[in-house]
Design brief:
Low-confidence stretches: none
CATH class: Alpha Beta
Strand content: 25-35%
Distance between the termini: 41 Å
Radius of gyration: 16 Å
Order of helices and strands: HEEHEEEEHEEE
CATH topology: Beta Polymerase, domain 2
Strand order of the largest sheet: 1-2-5-4-3
Oligomer: single chain
Mean pLDDT: 93
């Protein structure tokens, strides 16, 4: 499936999705409420069969906290990037995709620990690197570490 066909498929699932084209991947941008239905459809549809989640990243960009998902179909060999973001920096939340992709569990824990994004319905959401009593999220641009004098703003 090429990028044009994939874009048509995604538009049929999420009509308000937007797209970025780059040399390697078609990038789909959806609201957090549309993420889980889109990923479920992309995985279960035999024409797309996105059965392999090979990367999840957290991103602090402008005033948004974003999560970026890289998917591949091992049956068809095509790939797609799906992005979603929230502007709520006080209580950022997104649906967990662990029910669809078991490999997302550690990635979501890492993003929670370092960016503070809460993944709803995650089976064991917890800090991985920082102590449980740590204040703040070290990969956010507004994070300030008075002890080590790190200012990312």
């Amino acid at each position: 499936m090429d990028s044009v066909q994939l874009q048509k498929l995604v538009s049929g699932i999420v009509s308000d999705a937007t797209f970025e084209e780059n040399k390697q991947f078609l990038t789909v941008i959806v609201s957090p409420s549309r993420l889980l239905p889109l990923l479920k459809s992309l995985k279960e549809n035999p024409d797309s069969s996105f059965d392999f989640l090979f990367c999840i990243s957290g991103v602090d960009i402008q005033n948004k906290l974003m999560v970026v998902y890289h998917l591949e179909s091992t049956a068809h060999g095509h790939q797609v990037v799906v992005k979603t973001a929230t502007e709520d920096r006080e209580k950022p939340e997104m649906d967990s995709i662990v029910g669809l992709y078991r490999g997302a569990e550690l990635h979501e824990n890492e993003i929670f620990d370092l960016f503070g994004i809460v993944f709803k319905r995650h089976p064991n959401l917890r800090r991985m690197f920082m102590p449980d009593d740590w204040n703040g999220y070290p990969l956010r641009k507004d994070y300030v570490d008075e002890v080590n004098i790190i200012d990312l703003s």
